[in-house]
Amino acid sequence: MSYCVNCGVELDASAGKCPLCQTRVINPNEEAQDKKDKEQFSPYSTKEHIPPSANRSFIAYIISMVILIPNIVCTFVNLLFRDGGYWAPFVNATSFLVWVVFVFPFFTKKLKPYLMWAFDTVAAAAYVFFFFAVTHASGKNWYFTCALPIILIISVMVLADIVWIRKKKRHWVLKSIVILSDIAVACIVSGALVDYATTLDFMFEIGAIVFVSCAALVAFLIYCYTSKHMRRWLSKRFFV
Amino acid sequence: MKNGGFDWFRLDNAAKIFPGQNSNSWSNIFRVSVELKEEVDPAVLQEALERTLKRIPTYNVRIRKGFFWYYFEKNPHKAAVFEDIKNWCYRVNFKENKGFLFRMYYYGKRISVDVFHSISDGYGNTVFISTVVAEYLRIKGHEIPYGEFVLNVNDKPTLSETEDAYIRFANSKVKYDRRSPWAYHAVGTKLPAHLCNYTAGEMSFKQLHAVTKSCGVTVTEFFAALLIDIHYKKQLREKKKQKEVSVQIPVNLRKFYPTKTLRNFVLCLRVAINPNMGEYTFEELLKLVALQLRLADTEKVCNSMMTANLGLEKNPVAKYIPLAVKDIGVAISFVITGEQTTTSLLSNVGPVVLPDEMYRHIEKFVLFPGPGKRNAARCGVISCGDRLIFSFANCYEESDIEREFFTRLVKMGIHVKIESNRE
User: Fold this and answer.
1) Out of B90, B198, B417, closest to residue A51 by CB
2) Residue from B262, B36, B238, B63 nearest B133 by CA
3) Which residue in B158, B382, B119 sits closest to B263, CA to CA?
4) Residue B4 reports pLDDT greater than 70
């Protein structure tokens, strides 16, 4: 019969330590063999049974099939009726991008953000390149002067966000500030690049409008996050 | 319906909610164990289980999806017994275990049954396991009479044992408003899915009763007050913004209504304190809990709660919503309400009453609630003879609540013996 010197409760004869406070049970008179024998008669089984989890890859496989079937149908229909030109490759390319971004992550057992980031970046670049290659007749090299830089800039920002969020747990306000800043930067840069590379001169202005709106929100959130006074005032005014 | 009406059943009013809450990582499940004085023979246990399943058809079922509701149908397969595991009460998958919604285990001298809450409540499951154990002992050659919690396996099952007693007795003109605020939850290092720490403390009922009697409260009230006190003090240490501390207490409605049902017939009462009202001493908490519980634990209040619950089921709009949509609704409502409104759970099955000849073969009964999603302390109480077992199911690694609870009892002069699946 053993007792925990710390908790005062009686322990099971097989216990090596107190389950409540982890204090070790020491009996200097006990033989090593006795101790081993006791441990074999634990009050509860020591075997764990982890049931199989939902088969994510099977679900992903089913969704892939659901996406694949209309694509095959579209391709056949387009091959049979070619009067309107070849439109099925656009459907196929878009479906492929959707598959890479939304379905492919389910084929991995655990979420792998860096791998997904790499695949998504390549898929987005390839997708836009497909459109560029098809419409290249216009003569302008808009893919390398505009589309690819935009994709790379957004991709780098997303990578930075993933690293930052995974480093430690962040407050939701900080996360909102970072996401809004990303949107602001992405919009202004995209606007400027599109403005520069194409004839769409109004794009920079549109980007600037979004940038200013996001910047104002970011400034407000930073103020709320840093100022105790502001937080107190907000909770007083908007209590539920 | 063929076979005397036992080919298929509707789920009872309380059971309807559990399949919607079921997920791949969590189920509403609990365990009742019986420890014998001799090693368990699995072959004999298998035989005893098969005989008992013929007597209690509500266990011999699998769950099926109808268009509007789930239903149980007779399971054509043979239920099996398994060697016990460390992480019992893991989730129930309706396609595993040949569709059976309970799992029977043996380990050393112990027989346990983990049951999905849709098929029965604590009382029903205690009757089931008592009948299995009595049959087991009978096959082993012991003379065990029938009676009390032990059913005669030679009798035919009756419709009254399989009835949905909520429908028969809910007739209040008032629907009880059960909205409650979100409560405090003790947090810690969450164990991986399917794992849970279980700790059981064995004590003398007489010793405990002497203490609770001196406090002027019942055993349930005493335990509920102690749980509230521990969580209340823990929250004071941890947080500035104080939330309500509440304990959910299932009440066996069979004490109010004459029914033999072995299916669910419980209602959950909630006792709570608001720490923002000021400081509470343990004596104050005892009074508060006893008052709240005694006000709520009456036939009239329980009937109005039953009527409110049944109202949802009978609602003409809700009734004809397809099951898939109902499931989504239940899952969402479980996230919003569910464990959010309760800090802890305290399920007291009370004393198990057996034929006198059976006591000499039985060491003790243990009731383990399944792991909570957020609750660090889901507690079960059951007694057999003078042995009362208080158990904890804790989904966190930390054991501070259990430690505080049992050391407080020790300080009050109650001898406690601890067993746990912790290493």
Assistant:
1) B90
2) B36
3) B119
4) no
